[in-house]
Amino acid sequence: MKRFMLSLALLVAATAALEALPKFATRQGAKCQSCHVNPTGKGMRSTFGSTYGREELTMTTFKEQTDIEDFSPSLNDFLTIGMDYRTLYYYREATASSTFFQMQADLYLDLRLNKKFRIYFDKGLYSGFEVFGLAKVLPLDGYIKLGNFVPSYGLKMDDHNLMIRSGPFFPLNTDSTYNARAYPTGLNFGQGAEDTGLELGFSPGIFTFQAAVMNGRKGGLAGAAGSTKKAMMFRGDISMSTDLVNFSVGGSYYALPHATVNSTTTIMGGFGVVSIANNLTLLGEYDLLTNYNGVLKKDVTGTILYAEANYLLTSGIDLKVGYEFYDPNNSQKDGTITRYTIGAELFPLTGVEVRPLYRISQEKPKDADNNEFHMMFHFYL
User: Could you count the other beta carbons within 10 Å of the beta carbon of residue 137?
Assistant: First the structure.
């Protein structure tokens, strides 16, 4: 298994540091803004995205008996609603315990004020929310976005437990010396990472580019450091399609001034996705994270690698294997974490997803027995 996953990771990296767009968009040869109201992806689905989710993802077995004719999330010509609701059941080997966890309950509103300007609202179950004005008034199919939103960095995976997103739910290692070094457990671009600022985006042809200036992670009136310092984000990708292969490759950069010391957290990396024959999809992301460590009193640079393969077995059934590697400090042997994931994504009914996953964790120098079983139930509109 380990050799297979390492080979997969190398294959994904060799295909150009993969994934810039979600697998569904790449299978269709489309961009994030084709499927979502937010041009950087995530959240409420556009008319195309909603139609694709209803017509293409679902198993055909019960489709005719259960689908609602002439269904539309649009309440009228200028107001549309959407929703994502995720409940997770998980079992953790380290504590021999299991529980249900409400991961997400987001309500989306899209208010079109005129042909060029709209207001987007996303309120979640917990403290995080997104609200911004979106004006599609720039040349090169460009836009201006102003408000509170998640920075557009790398892969926009919906599993916030991934280290390229918010990171694992639990500590990665039971070694007290390792934990005391205060290394981050993920990139923190998942749920709750919303920030207030301004974003510009352009999408000429096969290219997409975004740049943003923000207060600093989690926003706030004082900004990143209670001064004029601001966080900066840049992201670009290129997407191409052929009769056999669709692919997208790109890179991201994020800089966040530290609040109390003369240091800047920087995250940079490459990402991409390739879809072969519309059924085999390979995704990956490689990131370098430089962050000030309060225990070591200096900047440390770590490495995060993520790779995933999905195979569309039949309509409504996706098989999945994944690989993650995290070294929090490349200059020292402070411990590494490797995780392997195997599972599936099932879409039995329109608007319903069931995702069983088994995740194997290997920590060094001390294995924490953090293997987990996840069963996620996702309802979406």
Answer: 10
Is residue 224 within 8 Å of residue 216, measured between CB atoms? Answer: yes
Region for residue 378 given its phi and psi (left: phi exceeds 0; alpha: psi -120 to 50; beta: otherwise): beta
- Given CATH 3.30.450.40, say whether it is the number of domain 2-380: no
Is the dihedral angle over the CA atoms 120, 34, 32, 203 positive or is it negative?
negative
- Residue 2's Cβ-count burial label (10 Å; 0-12, 13-18, 19+) is exposed
* pLDDT recorded at residue 18: 31
Tally of CB atoms within 10 A around 261: 13
Task: Grade residue 332 by pLDDT with cuts at 50, 70 and 90.
Answer: confident
- Tokens for 213, please give them: 């200036």
Tokens of 169: 């739910």
Per-residue pLDDT band at 364 (split at 50, 70, 90): confident
Pairing of strands 129-138, 298-314: unpaired
Closest CA to 12 of 326, 278, 324, 283: 283
Sign of CA dihedral 56, 48, 377, 82: negative
Q: What dihedral do alpha carbons 221, 225, 228, 233 form, nearest 10°?
A: -90
Which residues pair with residue 211 across a beta bridge? 200, 234
Q: Percent helix, strand, coil in the chain (nearest 5)?
A: 10, 50, 40
From the DSSP assignment, how many helices (H) and strands (E) are in the chain?
6, 16
Report the distance separating Cα 41 and Cα 26, nearest Å. 13
pLDDT greater than 80 at residue 226:
no
Q: Which whole number is the average pLDDT over 322-350?
A: 91
Q: What are phi and psi of 12, to 5 degrees?
A: -65, -45
* Close Cβ partners of 86 (under 8 Å, ≥ 6 residues apart): 102, 103, 104, 105, 376, 377, 378, 379
**From the CB of residue 75, how many other CB atoms can be counted at a distance below 10 Å?**
10
* SS3 at position 58: coil
CB 372 within 8 Å of CB 90: yes
- pLDDT surpasses 50 at 10: no
Supply 259's token pair.
Answer: 């609040």
Is residue 87 within 8 A of residue 102, CB to CB? The reply is yes
